Amino acid sequence: MTHLGTGTRRRVQLLAAAAAVSTLTALGGCGMIGGTEDDGGTPAAGAGQSGAATPEGDPAAPPSAEAPPAEAPPAAAKVDACALVTKGDAEKLAGTPLQDPLEKPEDRDSCTYTGPATGPTAQVEVYVGDGAKKFLDIDRELGHKLTPISGVGDESYAEDGTVFVSKGGVWVCVRLVRLEDPATYRAALETAARTVAGRL
Q: Is the pLDDT reported for residue 112 higher than 70?
């Protein structure tokens, strides 16, 4: 009678244990063929070569779970320039009636109110984000006199006909076009800056 070596018997025992917890389908896939005098069967060629079952091939091992895809952070709310300075705010700043702004749903970074064709000449422009900051940077490069506005936003400045406000990393520029002396509208512009800061 042929005797199995210790290593062979151990391998057969491991395979038998794995087979005991497998499903019927798995059992059919790793059945015994070519019997011997001792146990009536030897491991299938594939099973005998592989040794201990790998986690992927072990029927008792729990299925591997893929990590769910990371959710993208919610997009930051886009600031609407026309909501920061409403038509009523613009008319109060300009001191004259103004026309409704041209609606541009795809462009909320700017808003312009103009005076009626019959006059007087008046225009209020509002810029939000990179455009407002660029406006400020250009005026600094040109040497415009910028006066800090105390207690408005995180940072704010006034110059003739224009104010700049920054709060929470968002820059806003409000520009007034009138033919009178700009000093006439300085107080109204600073009030507009405080209104904008309160809405950011």
A: yes
Q: Please check whether residue 71 lies inside any domain of the structure.
A: no
Spatial separation of the C-alpha atoms in residues 65 and 126, rounded to whole Å: 52
Tell me whether strands 147-148 and 170-177 are parallel, antiparallel or unpaired. Answer: unpaired
Give the per-residue pLDDT at 62.
Answer: 53
- What are the b/e assignments for 33-59, b being 16+ CB within 10 Å? eeeeeeeeebbbeebeeeeebeeeeee
Name residue 189's amino acid.
Answer: L
Would you place residue 161 in the very low, low, confident or very high pLDDT band (cuts 50, 70, 90)?
very high
Q: Is 175 a domain residue?
A: yes
| 34 plus 7 within the same structural domain | yes
Full residue range of the structural domain in which residue 131 is found: 81-199
